Amino acid sequence: MSWEDASEMKVFAGRHCKDLATRVCEHLGMPLGGARTEVFPDGELITHVDEDVRGRDCFVVLSTSGRTGSAMNDPSGSVNDNLIELLIFADSLRRASARRITAVIPYFGYARQDRKERGRTPITAKMVANMITAAGFHRVLTLDLHTAQIQGFFDLPVDHLAAAPIFREYFLSVRSTMGELVVASPDVGNAKIANMYAEMLDAELAIVHKRRVSGTEVVSNELVGNVEGKSVVLIDDMISTGGTAAEAARVVMENGAREVMLAATHAVMVGPARERLANSPISRIVTTNSIPNENKFKGIEDMVVELCVSKLFANAIDHIHHNKSVSALFHQYAESKR
Length: 338
Known about the structure:
This protein has 338 residues and is of the alpha/beta class. Helix content is 27%, strand content 25%. A hairpin with a 5-residue loop joins strand 2 and strand 3.
């Protein structure tokens, strides 16, 4: 795509997604849009759009994730702070007469609060969808939502991308070194996705039974499938505290697996995640840069392969801008929707 083709398009980035947005713009053959977010002494935010956007097709790249490590206690790195910055960006662009504004959210925060599990609790994912709509966005572009039905929470178009093409390319590049391969789901709910990856990689399928004890602790003790003497790839949408992955890895190794790897789109990496993964049988963690790094892999860098999603988003943005089908880009991965 040439710069001339993109003359009516602008791509902007939130403070913590500038690296990913810059890579997206490199694929699009255009510079990153000029904008900055300032923090007032009392913690309030204000965004300044430094370019003319009247009548332009605008995209704002920002993951509504929290930062890891010591930054977790820093308000400038919280989930809520990034969400508010995204909303303020929309208001800035709307008041500057942008023609269309798309929220590009590589990681959608609050996605796990998508239903009422007990009385008197919120469905926060729906509330956040309402906020994004009310702020002035016209559509949303996101990646591997925790559950696909979140698309229905929005009263505007949602393009839901899958990271499957990126993982497929990586694992096919190392497939010859892995021997007999099994793709395993760390819980029953993810079995459909794991089966799609198994077919994609010409591998067998296994499922680990998980029982959640609390928000940070899970117990896995049953395995359906044969992993003895084989390489196992655990497939999940995110790594949060690392409990599910560590327990599932323990189960497959106890059942005779030769090695176990973990592939997950979003490396949230909170609480004891690094310690749990470092002390687990997992030999390799394959993830994406959907969430800014912020030292989240400190101490386990040698275990991690981080794949870039910039080309994936650049292709989708190009299709949206030219009013072409986005789903056509990923039709062969339709089963990767959770």
